[in-house]
Design goal:
mainly alpha; homodimer; Arc Repressor Mutant, subunit A; Tetracycline Repressor, domain 2; 0% strand; 2 domains
Chain lengths: 194, 194
């Protein structure tokens, strides 16, 4: 009998299956079986596989908003705020169970137009948050720099989000070292002279 | 009647369909119909959808090896070689028809083990090429730096390969500007002091 966390359990299990065998190849029956639920019980929580996918993506954005943006927002010094943001974003990407939730955000799945609009708006807000933060960090130091904040924001997202392609918990590069080296590279790189 | 380039035409068309509607949701019949071929004619060229996927990925790696690595190999100065490498890699990513071929390289599709081994070995060789080049650029300048060449290579791959998530030919950021700003950020970033 599913407990009160069953909706979240369904999302984690479905995200795991979508990662392992692909979204298209995973049926509602597969999700139900993996949870030892009847299909009827699964449909009681989610009306379709589409809805599960949308809820996984929404939860992925919740993770970035609560575990990165909300945490750093009150750090007064912009450079410290950017450093914390890089570290926390990497923590999400190298984190355990939530990794499979956030990976799905990067895959170009077929959401319905209204749902796609919602997810894209939240992704856009995160990019704008980063862009404004980088602009503030550059402005604080003064001078003219070769890299525009918007381009730098995409570079940073690429550096970190791409980690899911190659980074493994058991590999030679530890998550903490990644954070330090990526921060060093980026915080030096955005001050390249125009 | 297919001409002598028909194998390549099939790969481009299949890559386009895989991008548009997903690999799992695309049938051999879809590929044949899009090319105005009979299914028998398609099977004359490729024995299965798996084989088409593998050939697309192999062709994607050919593109990097011939249009990036082979072109820069004879540039004597390592920093110039790295700059050329960044520019040419971005050219592939923002390039027209070949973009859909290379995007498929990033998606975690189910290849057969032996094919996966082949593609991963070629990806690894590209990473090692970048890593050695970055090490040479750092060594030439002397000093101790915070970012290890392996980590820097992954950062660069992330910055550039992630572009397929957001960069559009009709968007505000032109491919050439991207190249300049990414090069400035990266060539400054790898010299962050230890």
């Amino acid at each position: 009998m599913p407990g009160h966390d069953s909706r979240k359990d369904i999302l984690f299990t479905a995200a795991h299956l979508f990662q392992q065998q692909g979204y298209d190849a995973t049926s509602m029956q597969d999700v139900a079986s993996a949870l030892n639920l009847s299909k009827a019980a699964l449909y009681h929580h989610f009306e379709s596989k589409d809805e599960i996918l949308f809820q996984i993506m929404s939860y992925g954005m919740d993770i970035f908003e609560t575990q990165v943006v909300a945490v750093v927002r009150n750090i007064a010094d912009p450079e410290e705020r950017l450093r914390a943001c890089i570290r926390l974003h990497i923590d999400v990407v190298v984190g355990g169970r939530e990794r499979e939730i956030t990976v799905i955000l990067h895959e170009n799945h077929a959401l319905r137009p209204e749902e796609k609009r919602q997810i894209n708006a939240r992704k856009k807000a995160y990019i704008v948050f980063l862009e404004n933060l980088i602009a503030e960090v550059q402005r604080r130091r003064g001078g003219r720099y070769a890299v525009r904040p918007r381009v730098a924001a995409f570079a940073l997202l690429g550096m970190i989000n791409w980690m899911y392609q190659w980074w493994r918990p058991e590999g030679a590069v530890k998550g903490e070292e990644m954070g330090k080296e990526y921060t060093a590279l980026f915080l030096q790189g955005i001050f390249a002279k125009a």
